[in-house]
Amino acid sequence: MIYFIGDVHGHFDHVIEIVRRDMPAAIIFLGDLDCSRPLHEIVAPIHDLSEVWWIPGNHDADRDQASRNLFDSEFADRNLHGRVAVIDGLRVGGLGGVFRGDIWYPTGGNIRHESHDEYIAWLTRQQPTRLRASVPLSGKARKHRTSIFHSDYVRLAKQQADILVTHEAPSCHPNGFAVIDELARSMAVKKTFHGHQHDNLDYQQHRTALGFQAFGVGFCGIADQDGNVIRAGDYDEARRR
Description:
It is a single chain. By secondary structure, this protein is of the alpha/beta class. The protein is built from 9 helices and 10 strands. It has helices at about 15-20, 40, 65-70, 115-125, 140-145, 150-155, 180-185, 205-210, 235-240; strands at about 1-5, 25-30, 50-55, 85, 90-95, 165, 190-195, 215, 220-225, 230. The two termini are about 30 Å apart.
């Protein structure tokens, strides 16, 4: 069984408690971990009980230290963004981060930078020669580690999976995106799970139109691979109203 973890924003105690109780085969963080220490240190009490996987959220690049604690942790290779991995016998694809207008905003916006490498090369050219070596560490470069680049999307769309995890929501959410729907259908997934919105809305009426089941996992919420709520998100009830 796989458990999907909604945005924790630095709160991990409930995750450790529930993994110790239920011992799922794997857990997948849906972004916005906001790690105060390296991720492998935070989940050390449970990583021998469940595989730990993750995708980045937009807030995972807010601060240098939090970014390093996630992207440079010993679990850096458990980042699902832009790829498919077999987890507990299921193929799981991941699209972390968010759409941003200065990179790619799919609702009416052009693709300004195709890939992260191309963006860094462009950003480097904008700097005086003496500052160019520091560009990969700059605030803008860090921020866009959590942006969705078109090349990542296209690479993922060419693969097949059973489940797709994203930080952004599909179109059934009021703030969702149709391109997430298109990605899920291209990959022939049966289910999608997303974070970011801090809610868990009922998407059942959209299932036929979407062609897959969609689930949102709320703030500090946890759901299993069938969409059952293991721990309700802190704001789920209020957001439904």
